[in-house]
Amino acid sequence: MEMDEYAIGLDLGGTKILAGLVNSEGQMISQAQLPTTSEDGEKAVIERVLAAIESVMSDKKVNRRRVRGVGIASAGVIDSKTNEIIFASNLGWSNVPIGKLIEDKFNLPVRLMNDANASAVAEWMWGAGKGTANMIYVTVSTGVGAGIISDGRLLSGIDGSAGEFGHISIDWNGPLCLCGNRGCLEIYSSGTAIENAARTALANGDTAISASLLHGSKELTAKQIGEAALRGDRFSIDILKRAGFYLGVGATSLIHLFNPEVIVFGGGVMNTAPIILQEIEKSVRERCIPGMASQVRIELNRLGVESGVVGAAGLLFSEWEHERKLQIF
Ligand SMILES: [Zn+2]
């Protein structure tokens, strides 16, 4: 234990900041959580980020000199070269040099990545993708995103934006997406899409759904639809199955491009895994090049809400490992 290496992972979310001191086995030794409260302004949030890091760094069981760096997982558009958050709507931030601020204060290397990429690293190193060199993690929640591990490394692209799976087009003539493309996968398969599908049916006067889903409330969330589906509500099941079908269409392209051993699905919508995951699998099996389909597994994520923190730290471990191998050969 004494000689173990550590990295700090921090998940910077719209509602909370979660920092963890992570060992090389992917275990969180200590953690600190603070509310983000972004309405207090950028400076206040940055101070809380620094305080959360300081708090886990001060763990008395751990020698500070064995802490090798800080990984930050953030939603929004990031630049992994400059370690800047370019735009994050959930924080109301643009062009915040978060990496440099942390580096200056703690004198440690910092890696900034988007939250899907962080969770991908976590599942790869310590979850459902453990032991593989080619895997893809797909998150399905409000939006759809992915992190790609290719030949034993996180594929980051030129600035860390690689893996925008939700914005591959599955219909060239489909509705315009906020990103500028048309017919993006997430328009058909995200939690938001699931809510929209149910709302449209409600607006069309489908009384069967209002009775089974709404229970008198006006809200209609993907979570409610998922719970209704798991209770056996036919209408909700159909909506989820359709989302699963589209995810399988998208996943087929991922398989054709990256030839992964496993695709791991996570995110809030996967609470309905007993329904949606087999639909994804079915859609993949129908469409994928047979030789490639037979080699890929479709699996559910194993790590929970801490995967952002653990994976952000994990990226630092994986980079040292990679450098160590390069030095040997
Ligand atoms: Zn898009």
TrEMBL record:
Key word Hydrolase present: no
* Family, similarity comment: Belongs to the ROK (NagC/XylR) family.
Protein name as it appears in the record: Glucokinase
Q: Which organism is it from?
A: Brevibacillus reuszeri
Q: State one molecular function term (GO).
A: kinase activity
Alphabetic keyword roster? Kinase, Transferase
Q: Which domain of life is it from?
A: Bacteria
Keyword hit for Kinase? yes
